[in-house]
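Minutes, project huddle
Topic: does the predicted pose make sense with magnesium ion bound?
PN asked that the exact inputs be recorded in the minutes so nobody has to dig through chat later. Recorded below.
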Amino acid sequence: MANMLHWDDPVTYIHSLSSYDRKMLKSLDAAGIGELLSLLPRRYDDYSNLTKISDLVLNEPVTIKVTIDEIKQAPTFRRRFTLIRAKVSDDSGSIGVTWFNQPWLLKQLKAGDEIFISGAVTMRPRFGKGFTSPLWEPIDAETVAAGNIAPVYPLSGGVKQKNLRRIIKQALSELEPPEDWLDEDLRKETALPGLGQAYRFVHAPESLEQAEQGRRRLAFDELLSYQLALRTARREADVAGAPLVAFDENFAKKFVSSLPFELTPDQKKAVWAAVQDMSAERPMRRLLQGDVGSGKTVVAAMLAALVHRSGHSAAIMAPTDILAKQHAQTLRRLLAPHHIPLVLLTASARFAYQDGDERKLTASEAREVLAQGRTVAVGTHALLVRGSAPPDLALAVIDEQHRFGVAQRETLVVDAREDGKVPHLLSMTATPIPRSLTLTMLGDLDVSIIRTKPVGRAKIMTKVCVGDTGRQYAYDLIQKQVAASRQAFIICPLIDQSDKLGVKSVEEEVLRLRKGPLQDLKIGMVHGRLSSAEKDEAMAAFARGESDVLVATTVVEVGVDVPNATVMLIEGAERFGLAQLHQLRGRVGRSTHESFCLLAASEDAGMADRLFVLERTDDGFKVAEEDLKIRGAGNILGLQQSGAPIFKAARPDDLELMATAREISQRIVQTDPDLAGYPKIKQRIHALRETSHRE
Ligand code: ADP
Ligand code: MG
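Predicted holo structure (tokens), as shared on screen:
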């Protein structure tokens, strides 16, 4: 072959792409060959190992070879919705297949055709046992003829499985093997394949074992570089040392007695553990885990007050403007009795609060206030970027940081101060991280857990509402609650990829509700296209009770505290992760009124099954364990960075690989702290750290 493809070449260099292929690649967001090949299969269809219809087990992905007995369009009552039903059989029996919204199938398939069907059989309330929108292949398809294992990629937009398989295969055949960043010794020690081979194994395996070997290699790379990034940042921090925060016991007592409530024992323990951490020279790295509503904010507030008391600055960071503003309001109340100044800094608002006064700041005034030091700052994580952080920053609190992973926040904090000292770090999360993961992935991070919520909270009644009947139940309940002067959130999922800000989703939902089910209610909305001021106004109006119902997407953080809201209706609940649903659920039940979380799910194909976990438990840890099984560690740890997830290959059950990566990273950092002997690894970590600064 004349020209080999390189890892960094643009995808358009792949030979013989049609214009359709090019368009498809664009929608994939994979600009380079490397990015394309990093798109990993979700699973594989094993055509060498076919199952008989009589042996099908519910919910287990299989491939079967069948003849189509009958195929036709079925009537439906929903607009813009087509339903194709088929009956297929092999010599052991027959089964139904349903495809949603694929009208073209009637042209491609007819009775008498022989096809492979891949998917899982599910039980559906109306139709019984069957396949729903399974993948299919004619039996003479190229993928099937060539190898017997076909990768199944996660798809988005208009990308077609078959085309993507063909293009990736083509790219692979033209690819010059990428340089391996693991050296010979490490490869031997871990018994993993080389990098080039790993990509071949993953995309064009000869057996499922081979596919798994390839995946494990890629997973190991992710885990090792992650561990190394974490460890090198920590080592830097340990070497640099942290500012000492002296503990003033009398002040602590005064602070506690100024609170409108008594701290729970877990809150006290968390404060005390952090106080001890901060009185040492080694920077604190503590993770504060506590379910939604467990009262993490007051812990942060008290620590910030203590830091201020000892003569330093503290910064509290939230992932969004709205949440930062809400924190500022809370802190303002808690700090005012002690005359501690507070600065709020977000993209849209800058305020200084002192002794009950509120003063708007210009950008340069805000910089000045921070530069003077000895203040408590609240804002988004931009606060931590070197040059804008207070010079005497002694404590950084990062709340609900889904945006980036532990390694990222660590590197941000390491670099925050100009004088090289490293602030203490408290990460707060409502996503309970299972213990197995904490140990392997978070390494030496200390953990505080708030297990018991403050007393006096009403329970949240959670109900999975399936189909139209379920939805009617939900609307009736909302009507009743509004009649009792309560309010409701309605969260809708994004309709499609192009609607990233959720404008269409929210507007269509509001229109639908106003026309029918909730026509007499006052409905407000929040979506990503509103300006920050408009969002605030919509939220504030809802908080003041001027609207009965607030329709929003999760793009917009609905972390705002509206105690009078007692209903959380989540549309398309099957599309969200359990942990995320649990978080959303926590937005109600913030008063003594009985609260409800309604999970509206479509009746298609048992999609709602896993949602019942939420009906059964309100323990965030149990929910997280379930979520972990289903979705993977990356999500749980918040490592799914917007745009660039760090873990694509690694899975939650890769505990052994995690342990190996941990061991090897420990050894490398001990023997060669500057990674001088591992230039390629160093480069990779550098890139990882850079992303955290760009985020
Ligand atoms: P989260 O952990 O989800 O961030 P918050 O810090 O927002 O929870 O606290 C939720 C609510 O509980 C707040 O209204 C807060 O004032 C209240 N709260 C916190 N701690 C206590 C406590 N010890 N007793 C009673 N109410 C508390
Ligand atoms: Mg919170």
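Observations noted during the meeting:
- The two ends are 40 Å apart (CA to CA).
- The CA atoms of residues 58 and 122 lie 5 Å apart.
No decisions taken; revisit at the next huddle.
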